[in-house]
Design brief:
The chain is of the alpha+beta class. The chain has two domains: 102 residues, Ribosomal Protein S5, domain 2 (2-Layer Sandwich); 42 residues, no CATH class. Helices cover 37% and strands 22% of the residues. It contains four helices and six strands. The longest helix has 36 residues. The protein starts with 5 loop residues before the first strand and ends in a 29-residue tail after the last helix.
Length: 187
């Protein structure tokens, strides 16, 4: 398909997740795919670009792939980071003769101390992404066809061109008769 301006959207859901893909294309001479992916699907960037490249030959394509877990999210603690932080706090306390103990609330707010546990994506997940991407591309193609067909019909109806060579309906006036004033006022 020669991509043109259009929009496609599709959604799929599995047991523990839902995926939404939105595609927006605008005319461009070359194929330019821009992805906005959830961190869980970053590893699929190359495969997603390849799939789009197999279906579209040109255009700027903005892809927004949203992944949401439907099940309860479990968290992990970053033990090495906490151990290092506590050792630094104790060293600081002893070296500078400070009072107090490290606060759990302060530790929990440190970046990357408590993180969502990573779930291994199963084959159902990858199949769902392939399916929803294909469905979004199908929806995009339908949108482009709906936009192009009326334009082509109107062009054919409005066109004075017949099977013979296109000729001007009247001759241009001689150069001496052409107006030299511009459309802009000189005020």
């Amino acid at each position: 398909m020669r991509s043109m301006t259009g929009f496609g959207r599709a959604t799929a859901a599995g047991d523990n997740f839902s995926i939404t893909v939105e595609l927006k294309t605008v005319n461009n001479r070359f194929l330019d795919v821009n992805l906005r992916l959830s961190s869980e699907v970053q590893s699929l960037e190359t495969a997603i670009k390849r799939t789009i490249g197999n279906r579209l030959s040109r255009g700027r394509v903005d892809v927004n792939l949203q992944y949401e877990r439907n099940n309860e999210v479990s968290y992990e603690i970053n033990r090495p980071m906490i151990t290092g932080y506590l050792a630094a706090m104790r060293s600081m306390k002893d070296e500078f003769d400070l009072a107090g103990e490290p606060d759990l609330n302060v530790i929990a707010r440190l970046p990357n101390v408590v993180v969502p546990s990573k779930e291994e994506a199963g084959p159902e997940f990858f199949t769902a992404i392939e399916t929803v991407l294909a469905d979004a591309l199908d929806d995009l193609e339908k949108c482009v066809r709906r936009r192009v067909r009326p334009s082509l019909t109107n062009l054919a109806q409005d066109s004075p061109v017949s099977n013979r060579a296109c000729r001007p309906s009247r001759r241009s006036p001689p150069r001496s008769e052409l107006s030299t004033t511009s459309g802009c006022s000189s005020e």
